[in-house]
Amino acid sequence: MTNEPEVGMRHLGLAPWLQTAWDLRAAGNFVGGGSGTGLLIITSLGAFGGLYSRGAILVGLVLVGLGLFSVFLEIGRPLRAMNVLLGGKRSWMTREAFVAAVLFPLGTAALVYPDLAKLIWVPALAYLYCQARILEASKGIPTWRSPLILPLILTTGLAEGAGILLVLAPMAFDSATPPDWAASALIAALAARIFVWMTYRRRMVAGEAPVEAAAVLVAFSAPFTLGGNIIPVVMVIGAGLEPSIAVAALAAAGLAAMAGGWMLKVTIVTKAAQNQGFAIKHSPARGAGEPGPGIKPGWTDSSNT
User: pLDDT (tens digit, 9 = 90+) per residue, 88-121?
Assistant: First the structure.
């Protein structure tokens, strides 16, 4: 019969534990940066159709700036923040800073020269990609290092951006009702986001993440799927069927899509961020005895080792 207290003591300090180096301030960078660049990408692409929105560009830049400021708040020695510029060959955070140095001047210039709005999507997409690679490069956190984190961060950024554009529509465009392409962009981004999310969650639960991290993702999945993805799509469809509620319904859909993306990032960065933990392939032999079974506490296969 297994001695449970003994097993617990044996695994003490070996099982994965939640990282605490990145908190809500770090998540704020992904929230602001993702939503801001998503909004800038959608707005920039809309400019090719002759729709220019100075307000949407300004809000996008502000969101990215707030994301960067939240990182500054997290730095233990703020006066050393400029050291981030020294790691361009190996750090995606440094590359993010370099892209920001292009994004902000270009975005600011586009507030004065509308034709430049058609170029903003290039550095905005590069910035969003850098953010995704920052997480993917953190190999010690299984939920971050998954290759699916790349499309997940990209698709949620676009969904959040399209959602914010619908919220800003009465102020961003001459007509109170947002253009049809904005609602279509939101539905397309939500469809892509939920597909990637379901695949990502399934792989994490199947054994690519520690048990505790997988449990967090499972608990989060239902409210995120319903409130952050399905309900916004229903609201967009309702807006098309009943024009009298179109503005309010589209704004509500945008808010729900945006809030869902923000909570997704907060969950992944601060709640489902258990590290790898420790494991051994087999227990060492004692004297002339045979090696014992290996242990990988905190993972789905630990009960079989």
Answer: 456 888 889 899 999 999 999 999 999 999 999 9
pLDDT digits (tens, 9 = 90+) for 137-172: 999 999 999 999 999 999 999 999 999 999 998 777
- Geometric angle at alpha carbon 256, from 254 and 257, rounded to 5°: 65
CB distance 253 to 241 below 8 Å = no
**Domain spanning 21-277: which CATH class is it, in words?**
mainly alpha
Residue 297 CB contacts under 8 Å (≥ 6 apart), including other chains: 11, 14, 15, 277, 278, 279
Q: In this structure, is the dihedral angle defined by the CA atoms of residues 40, 188, 269 and 122, taken in order, positive or negative?
A: negative
List the domain boundaries for the chain: 21-277
Mean pLDDT over residues 187-214, rounded? Answer: 96
Element containing residue 280 per DSSP (H, E): strand 280-283
Task: Give the C-alpha separation, 275 to 209, whole Å.
Answer: 9
* Global model pTM greater than 0.85: yes
H/E element, 191? helix 180-203
Give the H/E segment covering residue 283. Answer: strand 280-283
